[in-house]
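Predict the 3D structure for this chain.
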Amino acid sequence: MIELRRCEALRIARLFLGLFITSLGIVMTVHANIGAPPWDVFHLGAARHMGWTLGAANIVTAVVIVLASAMMKEFIGLGTLCNMIAIGAFIDLIRFLRWVRFAVSFEGGAMMMIAGLFVVAVGGVAYMGAGYGFGPRDSLMVAMAKRTGRTAGFCRCCMEAAALFAGWLLGERVGIGALIAAFGQGIAIQIVFSLLRFDVKKIHNESFVETCRRLFSRFASKDKGAADRR
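Done. Predicted structure below.
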């Protein structure tokens, strides 16, 4: 039982470490100062109009996306719910502590943007590898693909384009960074996944209900064993 609890604790630690690393990468792409990635163009625009922090805008957007995914009957995992809250909280924490400075030149910004994309990819390996489910945007992408019959890549491109357009309508600047992120994120993910020999298709992602049932049955077995010993 101690070994099982330790294993569960390590999975949860991996989940939150991955979410923190992902948040750090997101802040790097925003602070690259050459134009944020598509979703962050929208987050920055919403934050400016609503008086929110960047992290708060991320959280509100994630909540709406998770609700939309649930309405389309896509399963929601513990990792999805943690991603929904923790990413935004970590983004605000990192920015508040000023761990990542704004780039002051285009060359430096481009390097920071590319590095940030790789950091996001490493964070994805960590949190997805925990097996608690995909993030909100990935869940919506899968749900849209199932509903429309289109490929996941096509649905993701539509989502990115919609977020970028919405951010532009909110008055946020669209720079070269959005293009670098749009084309570079997939490349960064492929390189990192290959180097770390990470195959997302081999990961069994638990739904939130599955996780609750598994933990409940484990604790119920523990209580029954303790009662039998008495």
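The mean pLDDT is 88.
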